[in-house]
Amino acid sequence: MADPIKTRLYVDSPLADGQSVGLDHERAHFLRHVLRLDRGDPVAVFNGRDGEWRAVIDGFGKGWCSLTVTEQRRGQDTTPDLWLLFAPLKKGRIDFVAEKATEMGVSRLWPVFTRRTDPNRVNLDRLRANAVEAAEQCERLSVPEMGEPMPLERALAGWPDGRTLYLCAEAGSARPIAEVLRDARQTGVAGPAALLVGPEGGFDQSELDEIAKLPFVVPVGLGPRILRADTAVVAALACWQSLAGDWTAGGSDRRPPFRAPTFPSAGQSPAGEPALD
Amino acid sequence: MADPIKTRLYVDSPLADGQSVGLDHERAHFLRHVLRLDRGDPVAVFNGRDGEWRAVIDGFGKGWCSLTVTEQRRGQDTTPDLWLLFAPLKKGRIDFVAEKATEMGVSRLWPVFTRRTDPNRVNLDRLRANAVEAAEQCERLSVPEMGEPMPLERALAGWPDGRTLYLCAEAGSARPIAEVLRDARQTGVAGPAALLVGPEGGFDQSELDEIAKLPFVVPVGLGPRILRADTAVVAALACWQSLAGDWTAGGSDRRPPFRAPTFPSAGQSPAGEPALD
């Protein structure tokens, strides 16, 4: 990596040597009046496709800022193919989930409504804004895509072949998560994965029984204490990344043992799949 | 477990059949005016020593409430002997750390000041209140003890024999945490443990080098992304619990593979320091 640059920005534009990038009003204001940056100051930019680039500020105008991209700092890496399905939580807790799940490297954040989900809608723009901010801060080269919020039943009805859904069960009979992931790895059935974390207060019992019966679902246990939903999200992601994801090989330079397909560009609709975004 | 009781309270008093327990003003107000409980209603109580008991409300007075303990619901269990040393964070983030670390089963929460720690004091009462509330909600039978806040250097200078300190290093050269914990278990050097998570913005480099050289310190890597301090806390605790703690055996009924001494009573002032436990 080249010189340290403190400001990292996620942008939509293509990134290449000499490319111009325009920033919207909010970003322009942030750079100019919060960070007090000026013409000629460097920033780092990434778009989820072209790696990370150095760019310099060309100038500010009324409600805009333009940058010129100068050199690549890092090539695009891959992020493990890991989805997080979660029941929306109250504001504050859901912001937290978006932030933490992004830091923990999920490739898709997918809000699903369970029978007992308390909030019955979700602000996807806000979720995405939190994910973008977290990606900028944690040195990620991508932003998780957002799955279209829908009832859990519908998400499961259109479940894609070959993707295992690990159901984070409440304290109880499920096998410990580390044991399950170790076995999956040893028996070579590892592949694209998803984690499902239920609502505060837990799943409805009959709903839980129905989910657990699905052929692509594997219940996993997260210990003897009752975890809050937001705690369970971080904890389950940490277990997955450390045992099966990109924490296993000492960094992003080595290939994770699970299949890690090229990460779809944030905002770009992935092929197939209950068409999200 | 007996009949479901929604309200769980941590108390200081001894718990035994027929024992009377008084609650302070705040608790009395909460039971009466927030939960709208009345004389004769059942609650569950625990004190970190005597397991969990059913109790019934005898009555309310001006600023107090009294309970009578009736029967034991669960015997006292053990919690893995795991400390968390962390650099105090801003309000909000530190509340979060207390809540999450309690849910994740730490036996001691120990705020330590690193060279770059931003807040230079910590509100131990607030930290403890958050831990108590989390313990009540997550079905724990104990509250983590609070280590006396002190400079990290001093904490390390008096480090007890036989306790491994896992240093959560920022993205870099440390071995992946899952690998380190697996080896520790296989080679039988597992024992009392502690995790150290640095401040937002990371350790000072020379400080980090000095810590890493200590004989009881083992650096562990938490993947290629830069985690916020509060994320690192939950993530590292999840890895430890799932690989070496009480998530490994499917619940609290089985003995964890690491030494799990009788958990010291919460609220009891730890003698000396670092001679704690």
Main β-sheet of chain A, in a few words? 7 strands, parallel
What percent strand of chain A?
A: 15-25%
As a percent range, the share of helical residues of chain A equals 25-40%
Tell me how many strands of chain A there are: 12
Outline of chain A: elongated
User: What's the SSE pattern of chain A?
Assistant: EEHEEEEHEHEEHEHEHEH
Derived structural class of chain A: alpha/beta
**Fold-level CATH name of the largest domain in chain A:** Alpha/beta knot
Please tell me how large the radius of gyration of chain A is.
20 Å
Count of helical stretches of chain A: 7
Which two protein chains have the largest interface (Cβ within 8 Å of the partner's Cβ), and how many residues from each? A-B, 46 and 46 residues
- The level-1 CATH class of the largest domain in chain A: Alpha Beta
List unreliable stretches of 5+ residues of chain A.
Answer: 250-277
Question: Superfamily at the CATH H level of the largest domain in chain A?
Answer: SPOUT methyltransferase, trefoil knot domain
Count of discrete structural domains of chain A:
2
CATH architecture call of the largest domain in chain A: 3-Layer(aba) Sandwich
Quaternary structure of the protein: homodimer
- The chain-level mean pLDDT of chain A equals 86
C-alpha end-to-end distance of chain A: 32 Å
Salient structural properties:
7 helices; EC 2.1.1.193 (chains A, B); Alpha/beta knot; 277 residues; 7-stranded parallel beta sheet; Ribosomal Protein L25, Chain P; elongated; RsmE_MTase_dom (chains A, B); homodimer; alpha/beta; methyltransferase (chains A, B); 5-stranded mixed beta sheet
